[in-house]
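SEQUENCE-TO-STRUCTURE ENTRY
===========================
Question of interest: how does this chain fold, as expressed in C-alpha cells?
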Amino acid sequence: MADLNPLLADAELPDFGRILPDHVVPATERLIADHRRAIDAVTTAGASDFGSVILPSERADFELSRGWSPVSHLNSVADTPALRAAHAEAEEKLTAYLMEAGQNRALHEAIGRVAQSADFGKLSAPQRRAVELALRGFRLSGVALEGAARERFLEIGVELSRLSTRFGNAVLDATEAWTEHVSDEAALAGIPATDKAILAAYAREKGLGGWLVTLRQPSVMAVLSHAADRELRHRVYRAYNTRASDQAAAPDFDNSQRIEEIMALRHEAAQLLGFNDSAALSLETKMAADAEEALTFLFDLAHRARPVAEAELASARAFAQEKFGIEELEPWDLNYVAEAMRRTLHGVDQEAIKAYLPFLRVMRGTFQLIERLYGVRLVAREGVATWHSDVVYCDLVDSGGAIVAGVYLDLYARSGKRGGAWMDVCRPRFRDADRFHKPVAYLTTNFAPPAGDQPSLLTHGDVETFLHEFGHVLHHLLTEVDLPSIGGISGVEWDAVELPSQFMENFAWDRASLLPLTGHVETGEPLPADIFDRMLAARHFQSGLLLLRQIEFATFDMMLHRDFDPEQGAKVMEALAKVRREIAVFHPPEWNRFPHAFGHIFAGGYAAGYYSYLWAELLSSDAFELFGTAQADGGGGSAFCREILAVGASRTAAENFQAFAGRPPQIDALLRMRGLA
C-alpha cells in the first residue's frame, strides 16, 4: 500500500505531486493502525529503560506525524472541496485516536517505570527532560480520569478539533466570498500602481476586466492605507472586520455559535482535569505561573503605553481634520491618515520604500544574513515536488557542505490559501539508531504576488514578517536535539516559542543587516541612508496605539478563558467591550466582529496564550541587545544558536535564556524597543 499511497512512503520529503484527496483517509487509517501496533509492542514488553520505552515511542510518533503533516499543510495552502472533506474525515479519526493514546495507561506506566528506575539519573539531561514532559503530557491528556469523565474528555477533544477546523474554514470561505469589482480606475485614486496591478490580477483570475478588490491581505492593506475614497475604505474595513459573523453581508459563515461551543468545551475539559478554568490549563505549559501573572504583565504595559497612545490619537485626529477635513476619525481612516502623517511628518513614503524591497532581493539578503549569523547556507534545490508552482524548496547546508535540513517557501497570496504567515513542521529531526532524519519546515506568507512584469514588492513590515517566520524556521532547523518531542520548537513553552522569531525581526531595523536585503527594483541601488534614517526616526510612530491594540487582544483572550461562566456562555462581544473600556483609547464600531476571525485562539494554538507575543518580546528585546554586545566581540550568533536555537526544549526556556544572558530577562530593552523608556 505504501507504494500506492504517497503519504505512507518512507521518503526524505513528501511527494506533493502525487498526493490526492483520495489518499488521505486510507493513509490516516494505516498510520493510526501502525502507531497502535508500535505502542502495543512497547507496553507488552514490560521494559523500564529509555531505549526500550522512549525511543520506540518517539519513532512511532515520528512515523505518524510524517504521514499527517503534508495533509494538514495542504489543507491550509491548497484548499479544495474534495481535500477539505477528506481532511475533515481523517482529522476526526486521528484526533479520536490521539485522545485515546493520550490516556494509554500502559504506556504511561512504562514511562513512569523509566522515571523511577535506578538508571534514570544516569540519563542525559535532554533524555530526562523528554521523560518528564511525556509524563506531563499524559496528565494533561486525562490519563487519570475514570469512567464517564474519561469518555467525556475524549468526546470533547474530538469535537474541539472539529469546531476549530470549521472555524478556520469559515474564515477562509468568508474571505473569498466578498469582492467588489471596479471598472473605473478613478475609484482607486491614491492606490499605488503596484497595488492596482495586483487588483487587476485578481480580476483576471475571475475572468473580469478592470480591478477586483478582495479581502485578501494585499488588497485590504492597499485600500485601507492608500485609497482616497473614504467610502471604499469603509466598505472594505466593514467587510473585513465582519467576516464569518452575524454582521457580514452574507452571514452564511457565521462563527458565533462555534465560538460559544469551543469556549464551553474548553472550560468543561479543564474542569474535568481539575483546573478552575481553561486559562489555568493552558498555562500549565507556559512560563507564566498563572493568569494573574500574565495579566499583571499586560496591564503594566498598558499603563505605560496609554499616555503615549492618547497623544498619538490626538495628533492623528488633528492631522485628519486639517489635511483631509475629517471631523470624526474612524477606524477605516486610521491607516490612511497614518500613511499621510509618515510622509508629511517623517518623510517616510511606504510606496517609495517598497521599490527598494523586491522580494527576491529580500530573500537573497535574508539568506546572506543567516549565513553571517550562523555559518549555514540556504540553497534552492530544483526538482522537488511541491503543491504550487510558486513554492521553492531550499536545503540548509553547513560550513562543510553537508545538507543538514530543508525548508519549503510558499510566499504569495492566492485563492484557496489561508491568510496570515506561519511556520510549521514537515519533518522533525530524529536520530533513530543508525538512521538520521533531517528536520524540514514549511514557511508560509501571503505577500503581494508578482503582477505581469512587476515583481513582488514588500513593505518594510513584510520584511519583518519574513524575518519573523524565518526565526521559527531556524529554531526548527538548527536544533541539535535528536528526540522529536523536545527538538526545535517542540515542547518549548508557548510564551517563549516566539523568542527566536521576534529576535530575527530586529535585524530589519539594523542598518548593516537591512541594507543587503534592499535593491531598487529598477536600478538595484540599495536603500539610501537618508531614507533609512527617516524610517528609524519614525520607528515608534503610533507605537503606543499599536501596542495597546496588541495588549487588548491578549487581555481579551486571557480574560475570556479565565472568566468563562457556563451558566452565561462566552458573551464574547461583552467581554471584548469590557476589555476595551479598560485598555483601548480608540474604539471600533459596535458592528465590528474581530473575534469571529481570531484564528489564533479559536483555530490555532494560542488559546489563553496570545499574551505570548508580548511576553516573548520581552525575552527577544533583551536577547537582541545582549546579542549586539556579544556580536561586537564576535560571539553573538554562535552563543544564541548554542544556548537558544540548538537546545529546543531539552531545558526550560528560563534556563536557556539564563545560559545565553547570564541572568534572568529584564524589561528595560522591551521598553526601549517600543519607545516607552
Observations:
- Residues 359-524 form a domain with the Neurolysin; domain 3 fold (CATH 1.10.1370.40).
- The radius of gyration is 25 Å.
- The longest strand covers residues 403-412.
- The chain has a mean pLDDT of 96.
